[in-house]
Predict the 3D structure of the following.
Amino acid sequence: MRILLVGMNHRTAPLELRERLAVDDPAAPLQKLVAETEIDEAVLFSTCNRVELVVVTRSVEAARLCLRGFFARELGARSGIDDMSQYLYEYLDGDAMRHVLRVASSLDSMVVGEPQILGQTKDAFQRANECKAAGPLLGRLFQHAFATAKRVRTETGIAERPVSVARVAVDLARQIFEELGDKRAVLVGAGEMIEMALGALRGAGLRSVSVVNRTPERALELAARFGATAHALDELAALVAEADVILSCIGGERPILTVPLVQQARRGRHRQPLFVIDIGVPRNADPELDSLDDVYLYDIDDLSSLARENAEQRQRESARAEAIVEEERQRFDGWLMALRAVPTIKHLRERAESIRSAELERALRRPSLKGVDPEALDQLTRSMVNKILHAPVSRLRREAEREEGMAYLEAARVLFGLDDDSPAEDE
Amino acid sequence: MAILLHQATAALYLLAGIVAWLGLALGARRLERGSVAILTLGGALHLVAFGALHALDPPPPLTDLPIAISYMACVGVLFFLLLSQWARLAGLVVGVAPVAFVSTFAGALRLHDVAGETLGRAGTLPHAHVLLASAGLACLGLAGLAGLLFLAEHRRLKAKRPLGFRFDLPSLEALDRVNLLSLVVGFPLLTLGVVTGAIWVDAVEGRFWSGSQHEIWSVLAWFIYAAVVAARFGAAQGARTAAASAVVGFIFLTFAVIGVGVFV
């Protein structure tokens, strides 16, 4: 049994191609693959960053042709590209296993350590399982991949630090405030950046939000969408007085959040920290605000710089994660190789059992053994056979996990005459 | 038995500290939670250990400095665990557990020497003084620790530096609340400690003020804390200044209670 993976991802294919190749319902193509070809098991993995097919096959060549044909036929037609091979990569056996483990562990993602990929991998396997395309081998591989991803997450810091500006802002808010649920936020502006950051803050538990904008219509629209209240720009000072978080991204030549405005507005709020996130360019907040003790001002450069440092940290952690993936791949490889011993062990046990039962039957016919309890004799011989076979069978299982284990399996077949046609009891 | 319990408590605190530091080094949240659980076990055993000490006949005097410090550690740990119920304070175990270990270990060593000693004619006043003043000192120590961490975190956030390690540190808001609550509980206890101390002096010497170095420095420390409390509740003090005051106050108080006996 061989494992083959053919696919494309964000490194090999441009976004315009990937978005046209997304497979919403993998059931039909998977069933077709398993039913009509040399492929025994298959899982189709399709996200915005990758389309991959991983299969179990007895004939690599036939499977390769089939998978490449699948990409050309099913996906090429949709994308209008005749030759898909330039975008495709291929991994076989150990490399394919490693790739699946890396994908589930988010080491092959565009943003290393992003959390969604594990859920998407589980979903892809679930769908393949539902349409009976995934079998015991891919089942075991994917379960192993999920466990590896969990290990990577727990033992390394690959997913610890946020790498997007919005997430960095949320992370900082958590370092300043104990709970975000009871905090008040003021959004100055109503553009796309504000919307993105608001989504992240909302996700972190922030509830009370006021939107301030020069154009009231846009403020009303954004406020309605996020369950916030809309205000005119001249209400800013009153809102700052009550705010814990200010998120600002509004056009204008001069800063609108000045030191006198903030000082005046917060006169009665001593010891209450104020987190100002200024993602406007030019800046909306006077940099001098940061000199106020209880004000923590972060502009777009500060946030980007933290995001970059976090991304570098994730890269450093990814080296440790790769080591875990390699260790787990070897473990899975060992399990897979140990499967080679199964037919030999089965054959050996069957041969021993046939000899035992034939000899037992012959013995029980002898007059000298008349009166002996056949049940006891059956039990005795069964126990003897099991004990004799225990050591060689255990050794075979152990050795089969290694590359050179084949020699032991062949030796066992020769020594026990497993490939001979003549029945053992006649020898 | 009491000595054995103290030793076991010290071992648990040491273990909590090791687990907390391991969690810090490896960034493992499970270890972080484990360190809190071990510290809780240590705190509970510490209470039992003091119960066993009290049951001795005669009970050893709490006025002995290492034993008083061990008691302080017990109150500090329990107060810390209480505050941990409503704030993310698990990250502070890296500081609390080692301090608790050293204090308890020193107390356990000293117990051998003081067994059999009695308090003399002052009755229970010395115990009351030590119990109250040490509990106050423990709470104010926690305020100092929270203040120290607040200053470090404030500095880091102002400098726009990322966290140097993967650990869930308490938020600035939580540290400020710990500072405030520790002050609210610690200052009245310290005040009662000073008052019972004066009554104890009166019981022994027939006057409230003997003019000893310990008394002078303790009263000075009390005035400093009175000023800290007045600034915190009466004036428009920012969280950073409050944190710095808590640190300075505790350094002074530690010198007044422990340092004076050693250096002056």
About this structure: The mean pLDDT of chain A is 87. The first helix of chain A runs from residue 15 to 21.
